[in-house]
Amino acid sequence: MSKTLISSFPQKLIAWHQVDGREGLPWQGVKDPYAVWVSEIMLQQTQVATVLERYPRFMKRFPTVKKLAAAPVDDVLAEWAGLGYYSRARNLHACSIEVMERFLGKFPGDPLLLEQLKGIGRSTAGAIAAFAFQERAPILDANVKRILARLFGVEGALQEKAVNDLLWSLAEQLLPKHRDDMPVYTQALMDFGATWCTSRKPVCISGTRKCPFEKQCQANLSDQVLQLPRKTPKAKSPEFDCDMMVLQRGNAVLLQKRPTKAIWGGLWSLPESPWRTGGLNEVASLQMTSKALLALTLPEENHLTIGRHCKTLIQGERIKHVFTHRRLWMQIWHVSVNQALEFSSENLRWVSLDQLGKYGLPQPIKLLLQGLSLAHGDD
DNA sequence: AATGCGGGGCG
DNA sequence: CGCCCAGCATT
């Protein structure tokens, strides 16, 4: 490992940033630890373009850690809806309460303390400590992993612990000497990875710009830039089928709160059947009755009233939704019932179509019900 | 070390 | 369609 590269890296990167860094992102230059924390959590595995719209909205709704801690977790989830990885929202809320109680509303600057908080791992702790407290703490997100793997010609797959340890060690060694440089240095690392040393079209390959590290970058010197960092291939994601029910009573639909641990955890969705593997949609091939459908999708104690209240049953669209690790086909069924149908469960709630915005809905369900809402408005 | 957890953008 | 992304928690 080149000693000169390590000692010269921070200043060269900061110099690069002064000319070619990103500007105008709403969380840049922010010093308030709360605002930094929210931005870091929201940006986990989430594109800048997406966060650009959602971050100011979140900050307007929850301007301080105190306000966030005082809000019901359901409100936080509703605000988070559409961003994905909903454990981030649940952890955000839990973390805000812990900061209020354990740290009297002030985020700690020590990365080791930050890392004890829910939803904050080593990299996010480093980012908060660097941006908000000028602590000499490293980050290691996908950008930094890519930069370092190329710069130092790290051959092993990112999933290997030894490789991860090596990258953390490099990230530590590369830190600027002076803590005052930490915010700009950390931002520069992210900007450089996101805009120049990109995964598919790094500037050294596209030839659009001249990389400041081209003479030292091991991957560039050995023509391995697009091969690094290495990743072990992922298995193809399995496919599932399920039935979902839009149970409509006048202007309201029945929403069901999802269990915390599951996918879309804590969000409000439609009653749904268990997921089935294996292509053929057996239920759709049945002569579907409202009773059979409700038996599939609702808890047992709610079945008895069904037949009496059902007015119509219509087979709706079949929606495909792609997750990172699963593909899901949702067969929609529209069931219309008369006004008398009630449910007693905490997790079942009639919600009028114009109130849907107050609820955190999975993105495909939100889109589906928006279409319904529109059609209904046209009547 | 492997898996679960969303959603959007890009080629 | 497959790959990628300002990761973390759990097992």
Defining traits:
EC 3.2.2.31, 379 residues, oxidized purine DNA binding, iron-sulfur, Nucleoside Triphosphate Pyrophosphohydrolase, 13% strand, 7 strands, alpha+beta, Adenine DNA glycosylase, elongated, single chain, DNA-binding, 7-stranded mixed sheet
Q: Would you mind describing this structure in some detail?
A:
The protein has 379 residues and is α+β, with helices and mostly antiparallel strands. It has helices at 3-20, 33-42, 48-61, 65-70, 73-80, 87-102, 111-114, 122-133, 142-151, 161-173, 182-195, 203-206, 218-221, 282-285, 290-297, 306-309, 363-378, and strands at 239-249, 252-257, 268-269, 276-277, 310-322, 327-337, 348-352. Strands 1, 2, 3, 4, 5, 6 and 7 form a seven-stranded mixed β-sheet that branches. Helix 5 packs across helix 6, helix 8 (122-133) crosses helix 11 (182-195) and helix 9 packs across helix 11 (182-195). The longest helix has 18 residues, at 3-20. The mean pLDDT is 92. It binds a DNA duplex (11 and 11 nucleotides) through residues 39-51, 82-88, 91, 118-124, 127, 139-144, 159-161, 190, 193-194, 199-201, 234, 236, 261-265, 321-326, 362-363.
